[in-house]
Design a protein that fits this description.
The complex is a heterodimer of chains A (about 45) and B (about 250). Chain A has about 45 residues and is mainly alpha-helical. Chain A is built from 2 helices and no strands. Chain A starts with 11 loop residues before the first helix and ends with a helix. With about 250 residues, chain B is an alpha+beta fold. The longest helix of chain B has 21 residues. The radius of gyration of chain B is 22 Å and the shape is elongated. About 5% of the residues of chain B have low confidence. The chains are: A mainly alpha (about 45), B alpha+beta (about 250). Chains A and B meet through helix 2 of A and helix 1 and strand 7 of B.
């Protein structure tokens, strides 16, 4: 039986590294959105 | 300011936001939506840069036309938004997988068709969608939107059938589209003997997280491409086991 390439098993390391950039970018966006919205809410409360 | 991050509620809010944003980005990856998102990011960054530089006219233009941009986005993303709202009404909002029984039923049909096509040495290319959107590839083919059955798959790939060229995309228990164009793999590590069907299968698995089943018309060998890696010469039992394992994980 000929195998072109072997399949790799998905483990915890892969769970973290899979789409790592997308995960980092989305975390960054989430933090920025939270900070922006929370500042706007604080401003509104001050007014 | 940063002490607020230590609040468990804030952390929970950020984690929920993170998951939602990640899911949106994942579903947009590999579709035309990603370019629109990039455009929006450029506009938002430009707005803040204009504000910092004191370019009041440009920042006024950007902020006042923002409502207009929103309308454009709603028009462009209308099908995606409709799909997202429909998903909201479904039972599992964060659950993207299928039930164990449903997976087995789908795989029985798929593997049965693939093994018959393999015996008859009829070429086939079937992509099974997982998390990532395949809208661009679906749009390149002919919409089918029919229940996945072994007979229908065999019919599609019959050499005299008009839809036999290209790939079939399976989403859940449905054959969404047939005769779809998949991107060819640009990898230099592939065997020279691999044909265009195999290269397309590997190409799609590089561009998305789809599982791509390929049947060679030369020798009837069954192969499976996952994340740009090809496993060749599989038996139908091997195929069933690997697909079941992969789909149960997603």
């Amino acid at each position: 039986m000929m195998k072109f390439l072997k399949l790799k098993k998905i483990n915890l390391k892969e769970l973290v590294t899979y789409n790592l950039w997308l995960k980092i970018i989305s975390l960054g966006i989430a933090i920025v959105v939270w900070i922006y919205v929370s500042n706007e809410i604080t401003k509104g409360l001050k007014l | 300011m940063f002490l607020r991050f230590l609040n468990p509620r804030t952390i929970l809010e950020i984690i929920i936001l993170w998951i939602v944003i990640y899911r949106i980005l994942i579903s947009l990856k590999g579709t035309r939506g990603v370019y629109i998102i990039k455009g929006i990011i450029v506009l938002i960054v430009s707005y803040f840069v204009f504000q910092k530089l004191g370019l009041t006219v440009l920042s006024w233009l950007l902020s006042n036309f923002f409502a207009f941009y929103l309308i454009i986005i709603v028009v462009i993303f209308q099908p995606e938004l409709r799909e997202a709202l429909m998903r909201l009404g479904q039972r599992h909002i964060f659950y993207k997988g299928l039930g164990k029984e449903e997976i087995e039923k789908i795989l029985r049909e798929l593997v049965s068709a693939v093994s018959i096509l393999s015996r008859k040495k009829i070429g086939a290319l079937v992509a099974v969608k997982r998390e990532m959107g395949l809208k661009d590839f679906i749009e390149s083919g002919v919409l089918v939107n029919a229940d996945l059955t072994s007979e229908l798959l065999q019919n599609i790939f019959h050499p005299l059938a008009p839809l036999h060229d290209g790939g079939v995309i399976v989403e859940g228990s449905k054959i969404v589209a047939a005769s779809c164009l998949f991107p060819h793999s640009a990898s230099l590590n592939l065997e020279r003997g691999l044909g265009m069907r195999h290269r397309s299968g590997i190409g799609l698995s590089e561009h998305s997280d789809a599982l791509v089943v390929i049947v060679s018309e030369e020798n009837g060998h069954i192969s499976l491409a996952i994340n740009g890696q090809l496993t060749g010469d599989l038996t139908s039992e091997d195929l069933f086991t690997i697909l079941k394992g992969q789909l149960s994980k997603s």
